[in-house]
UniProtKB/TrEMBL annotation:
It comes from the Bacteria. InterPro entries: AAA+_ATPase, ABC_transporter-like_ATP-bd, ABC_transporter-like_CS, BCAA_Transport_ATP-bd_LivF, P-loop_NTPase. PANTHER family: ABC TRANSPORTER SUBSTRATE-BINDING PROTEIN, HIGH-AFFINITY BRANCHED-CHAIN AMINO ACID TRANSPORT ATP-BINDING PROTEIN LIVF. Keywords: Amino-acid transport, ATP-binding, Nucleotide-binding, Transport. The keyword Isomerase does not apply. PROSITE patterns: ABC_TRANSPORTER_1 (PS00211), ABC_TRANSPORTER_2 (PS50893). This is Branched-chain amino acid transport system ATP-binding protein.
Length: 246
């Protein structure tokens, strides 16, 4: 039997300002407990796709004009971003946005979406167990953290909402390769240990295809390829345009 899906996009179209068609019929499935990458160049529509799922399009005068959006078998199109967070959708925006005047500890507490203090503390300790470096820096204003540490904090904030699906927008952006490898290994570990499903948006196809099982390639708002990570790595077009060629 086919694996249950945590997320299913069927033919999604998004327009900004009623006119500009940014994605033109995107279909993507994320299996429960799976890790899937959405790859593509600048401006292809990756961020727009994630915003259609988290509902953050509303902040940019964007709207889903057509298509179906299902999370755990439920149509979420009419839900607010807050309601989607409550259902278990976490979206780490591009550019590691954290509160720079707050410490990592305060940032995590501010991001918590659970009721009980006990659960909040347990979630925070779990974030620190994944990111020991954040624990070391927990009392420093976050503006003083390195880019890699801020990315870890942005992921940690998303984990404070106890998500079932973690969506990451270009977590590797501007980071040294060893840090990208470290953060991606931690994402893999969270996926394995917590059963958290992951949708990873990346321009860095090399790093992304190391950790996901499947990938989608988006070009000019359309999915043009969908395959296993192994097959994508061997595909000549992917090699030429996204893996630096050989
Ligand atoms: P990047 O990695 O550079 O963010 P992307 O693949 O995530 O690229 P999107 O940011 O989703 O691409 O952009 C897809 C298309 O939608 C582009 O043509 C872009 O110009 C357009 N677009 C994105 N945001 C808006 C907006 N707020 N208003 C109008 N058009 C937008």
């Amino acid at each position: 039997p086919a694996a249950a899906k945590v997320l299913s996009l069927n033919n999604i179209e998004v327009v900004y300002d009623h006119v500009s068609l940014a994605i033109k019929g995107v279909s993507i499935d994320v299996p429960e407990g799976g890790m899937v990458a959405l790859l593509g160049a600048n401006g292809a529509g990756k961020s727009t796709t994630l915003k259609s799922i988290s509902g953050l399009l509303v902040a940019e005068r964007g709207e889903v004009r057509r298509g179906e959006l299902q999370f755990l078998g439920r149509n979420i199109s009419a839900l607010s971003p807050q309601e989607r967070v409550k259902l278990g959708i976490a979206h780490v925006l591009e550019g590691r946005r954290v509160f720079e005047h707050l410490t990592p500890d305060e940032n995590l507490i501010a991001a918590s979406a659970v009721r009980s203090r006990h659960d909040m503390h347990r979630n925070k300790e779990r974030v620190y167990s994944y990111f020991p470096r954040l624990h070391e820096r927990r009392a420093v204003a976050s503006g003083y953290l390195s880019g890699g540490e801020q990315q870890m904090l942005a992921i940690g904030r998303a984990l404070m909402t106890q998500p079932k699906l973690l969506m990451l927008d270009e977590p590797s952006l501007g980071l040294a390769p060893f840090l990208v490898a470290e953060i991606f290994q931690i994402i893999s570990r969270i996926n394995r240990e917590d059963g958290l499903s992951v949708l990873l948006v990346e321009q860095n196809a090399v790093a992304a295809l190391e950790i996901v099982s499947h990938g989608y390639l988006i070009e000019s708002g359309r999915i043009v390829m969908h395959d296993t990570a192994e097959a994508l790595k061997r595909n000549p077009d992917i090699q030429e345009f996204y893996l630096g060629g050989t």
